[in-house]
Amino acid sequence: MLNNQASKEKRASLHGNWSSKMAFILAVTGSAVGLGNIWKFPYVAGQNGGGAFVLVYLFCVIIIGMPVMMSEILIGRRGRRNPVAAMDLLSKEENSSNKWRWVGIMGVLGGVLILSYYSVIAGWTLGYALKSITGVFVNASPQAVSSEFSNFVGNWKVIGFYHTLFMALTIFFVARGVEKGLERAVKIMVPVLLILMLVLLGYAIKSGFFGQGLLFMFSVPDSCIALSHECPLTWNSVLVALGQAFFTLSIGMGAVMAYGAYLPEETSIIGASAAVVTADTGIAILAGLAIFPLVFANGLDPADGPGLVFQTLPLAFGQMSDGVFFSTIFFILLSFAAWTSAIALIEPAVAWVIEQFDKTRTQASLIIGILIWILGFGSVLSFNLLKNMIFLAGTFFDNVDYLTSNIILPFVGLLITIFAGWIMSSESSIDELDNSGFIYKSWRLLARYIAPIGIILVLINAII
Length: 464
Ligand code: PHE
What we know:
This protein is mostly helical and about 475 residues long. Helices cover about 75% and strands about 0% of the residues.
């Protein structure tokens, strides 16, 4: 918690600073690595046909995700406030309209909406940790694992209970302050999660279907390379890939901006962003490589949807010696990973309520947390009582997911890059990025032209 160590006399953060550069990288990595990598990436890649989708996703991460992340951190650190107030303050400093604060407000709203369903899925992982201990998955058949899953999500009281438990844990820790414990949790969680993913990868390689999984994930149909109409990738899939890039990197809703507000002055934004993007993407790819061979080895459907991870990994664990142990640890870790992401999802809203409405951290966490908890029941019921209530993108859960990942995050991300690239003066951004050479020029080119045009193009084409 060091303040004002910086050589430059700058604004101090309202809530203290991260204790070190590493702490910030760990916190952002903790927010990035979560259900998005292990639960969502494999299932959306599966639903969108694999190879071509994965390629577009990787492209979006590098060309759009990376500059948006850098823009968010630089706005956050320069503003040193919650995303709404930071946008408000910086727009004044740059002599622009204070309507920019709406970018912050939309981001806060995005986080609240995402957490409402994120907590439900995080609850599933808590439930699966307990199931693993009881040994239900030992030598279980694919049918048994699938029916275990449908019975589980089919019972709204059970998944409602786990959603409640997860939200309670999130509220409790957010109420105690951002930095406490988060650093240490991530330092242990990410490496152990990585090791477990490697164990699963080893199992996938031995399954005899690794080649098929690899092919599914990375082979791009010739028709797509030739950009012909036969390419199965639709504009909607491209939008989903873009949305997944935003979701998995935690960008486009102010979480990274809120964390950037506590970033010490001397830390390199460029280095920190590169580290987070690499770790996050690596874990997602690893998850895909572990899961798809299992899908094919067990005759499952890669396009099965949100249950994919919960129906494949327990099968693998069930066949390993010490599977009960590994499976339990894995689902506990995944809950941990989800929890560090949940904190990032709720933090912008909490910081905003504290600063805007003069509430204590505990009050703000309770108000926002309870709101999210109630909203979450829409998603709880989407898997049972209300699963046939289909409108627009699908169930209530599907709609919240589609609206947030594919519309709010890219749209807010678009405005963030426009703000950082066009509204902020080059003196301000050079000062924050601490670079005026090749990397700065590349960032500025991406933030001013490539990323905004790319996002607009995808949004328009997918919506038409
Ligand atoms: N990136 C997180 C994940 O992949 C989800 C998240 C999105 C967290 C947006 C914070 C902000 O699970």
